[in-house]
Amino acid sequence: MPQLLIIDDSVEIHKLMKFWLKKDNFEIISAFDGQSGFKQAVKVVPDVILIDVIMPDTDGFEVCKMLKLNKVTEHIPVIFLTAIDNTIDKVKGLELGAIDYVIKPFDVAELKARINIVYNNKKLKEDLKKEKEAAEEATRLKDQFVSLVAHDLRSPFGAMLGHLELLVSDEIEPLHEDHKEILEMIIATGYQQLDMIADLLHSSRLEGGKIKVKLQLFDTHQLVEESIAKTQLLADKKHIQLVDNVPKNMYIHADKYLIQEVVQNLITNAIKFSYPESNIEITVYTDDEVVVAVKDFGVGVEESKLDNLFEPVEGKSTMGTMGEEGTGLGLMYCFDIIKAHHGTMSVVSVVGEGSTFYIHLPLKPRH
After folding, report:
1. Fold match flag (3-106 vs 212-367)
2. Residue 225 exposed, middle or buried by CB count within 10 Å (0-12, 13-18, 19+)
3. Strand order in 241-244's β-sheet?
4. Tens-digit pLDDT profile for residues 192-209
């Protein structure tokens, strides 16, 4: 049953409202002065409060001000009831946070309607808030589940691919060429699936901007070395040299895990679109920001495609120089990760000559 708190020094008003509102299933709570009315509001937390402006001890404006400054009662809608039809007082009441203003003598049917409208609006807002919180919790649980599944799948998947690669590269007991070709196809497909798992993991960590990056100070040279080591096998297959131009003992503040995922993704993309027997250069430098650059000498990107390169576009994936496939989503997640660091990404590319992808990070991390 909705509760209406009436703060008015007139006994007649209380009797009248109790009589007329009982048909609307309102429970009427009475207070005959400002101070006791405020105490009742804090204690009961009613759905709507009806306050008379003129009262002997504490006037209605002061009571409304007290209510809006209190964390328990600040959200309760207030309707002023007064005999003074004064624009200045109306404006003052609304500025203090009142929802409505009713002038005495009032029409009972009109006042009832206004109280019901205020209550229904409040109830609607509360219902919408609950639905929003339920949707956010469902999204959080979904993200957590996806993150756990993606994380748990990636390690055994990587180990499985590693063992398959050992079989393919075994020179002591080499495989039959037909079997070797089949295994290489399985490995290529496996890496595509591994990329999709990584994309799922990135999505669950960053969706809605709720997952914050974990800032730490780390050596950029070491991070790039580790990223090169993880992509070396792919580069070797195309006889591509990965060139580390990062100076030693260059430290930056960022989420090492996420930044490494971005750098590794950019190197993998560079390998995919590079010609065999070419180079890929990784450089890090600081100016008024930290810049990580991954430069290849491959096919390049058409100018018409540069503007939406970091946006999710269905079917955007392009075949590599040796027929490599991908999800087409990697750059989008790289961009999301860098955005979460309050940074951005850019690209310079010439068709037939190659591309350079840039990561731009602030020198001083923003918390």
Report:
1. no
2. middle
3. 241-244, 279-286, 289-296, 354-362, 344-350
4. 777 767 666 665 555 554
Tokens at 143, concatenated: 């993200």
Q: Give the sign of the dihedral formed by CA 13, CA 18, CA 24, CA 29.
A: positive
Domain ranges (residues) in the chain: 3-106, 135-210, 212-367
The domain defined by 3-106 carries CATH number 3.30.70.260: no
In the block, tokens 């006037």 appear at: 59
The listed CATH number (3.20.20.140, 3.30.530.20, 3.30.565.10, 3.40.50.880) that belongs to domain 212-367: 3.30.565.10
Instruction: Provide the β-strand partners of residue 28.
Output: 4
Q: What is the pTM of this model?
A: 0.50
Report which of 202, 259, 266 is spatially closest to residue 234, judged by C-alpha positions.
Answer: 266
Helices (H), the chain: 11-21, 34-44, 60-69, 87-95, 108-169, 177-206, 220-237, 256-273, 303-306, 330-340
**Other CB atoms within 10 A of residue 107 CB:** 10
